[in-house]
Design goal:
MetI-like_sf; transmembrane helix; cell membrane; 294 residues; 0% strand; single chain; transmembrane; disordered C terminus
Length: 294
């Protein structure tokens, strides 16, 4: 068993990494502490405090009791889950097609895709396309919007190209078609890139608010990120607490709006943060399974 040598360089690098981690960990924990603190004691919290002052669920009660927030949360989950599934499938199957050696016109297609990646259309052109497709104020506009990211497509192509051609040829000799090869060989062997680009797609769709605020106009089709921006950035408190039942009990006057903002941010963070441990678990397992054994 080899013993790692202690060095001053490793000590410095470790200290730097710890400091960088703290710059991300402390603000998040301070936000969570503010969300769970008693409204009467929130003013006692400082920027470096990571434990709540007192304990109360009142902020989350106010936020979640608003039916608009619940509807927006469901809309965000629908767009993220369905949109990510669409993106993964079409990105992977397109990458499979573009990696076939006998594909006619592969070079012009790749040039066209790279041009699209570099010169993105403006918001006016995108709005007109969505309008012509009759998808304005429709959740499917955000589900289908940018289903394929060209950069992720190229990454997927590189992984598929590393799959031995002998596996595909053996399957074809046994009578397998392209769809069978894709479903039985390509997808099982592409677990790591699928998890990687899937996480990228999910985070991008969950955090999207600008295009959602343009394509989705009605309150019933709004998403959580748009409400978050209205309340946290623009200070629109009536949108969040206007329909809350707690107003009838005169509890709103006791609330601290900075802690309400913190609770709203926490609600928006939790679903996507829960994704990371799941992805990392399978990602590590895939790396170990893909190791070279001699």
């Amino acid at each position: 068993m080899s013993v790692q040598k202690f060095s001053f360089t490793k000590l410095v690098l470790g200290a730097i990494l710890i400091l960088i981690s703290l710059t991300m960990f402390v603000p998040i924990m301070n936000l969570i502490a503010k969300a769970f603190s008693n409204p009467n004691k929130v003013h006692m919290l400082h920027g470096y405090d990571i434990l709540p002052k007192g304990f109360s669920f009142i902020n989350f009660q106010v936020v979640l009791s608003n039916p608009i927030v619940g509807k927006a949360l469901m809309n965000s989950l629908f767009i993220t889950i369905v949109g990510t599934a669409f993106s993964i499938f079409f990105t992977t199957i397109t990458a499979y097609v573009l990696t076939r050696k006998n594909l006619v016109g592969k070079t012009p297609i790749m040039i066209f895709l790279i041009i699209i990646m570099i010169f993105e259309p403006g918001i006016v052109q995108e709005y007109m396309v969505i309008k012509d497709l009759h998808l304005l104020d429709n959740l499917w506009a955000m589900v289908l919007y940018r289903t394929i990211n060209v950069f992720y497509l190229i990454i997927m192509m590189r992984f598929i190209e590393e799959i031995p051609d002998s596996l595909v040829e053996a399957a074809k000799i046994d009578g397998a078609g392209h769809m069978t090869v894709f479903m039985r060989i390509i997808l099982p062997l592409s677990r790591i890139p699928l998890l990687t680009i899937g996480m990228f797609y999910a985070v991008a769709r969950w955090n999207e608010f600008f295009k959602s605020s343009i394509f989705l106009s009605s309150r019933s089709n709004t998403v959580l990120q748009v409400l978050l921006r209205q309340f946290v950035v623009e200070g629109d408190t009536t949108t969040l607490v206007g329909a809350a039942d707690l107003m009838k009990n005169n509890h709103i006057a006791q609330l601290d709006f900075s802690s309400l903002k913190a609770a709203t941010i926490v609600i928006a963070m939790v679903p996507i943060l829960m994704l990371y441990p799941i992805i990392l678990k399978h990602y590590t397992k895939g790396v170990m399974e893909g190791g070279v054994k001699e």
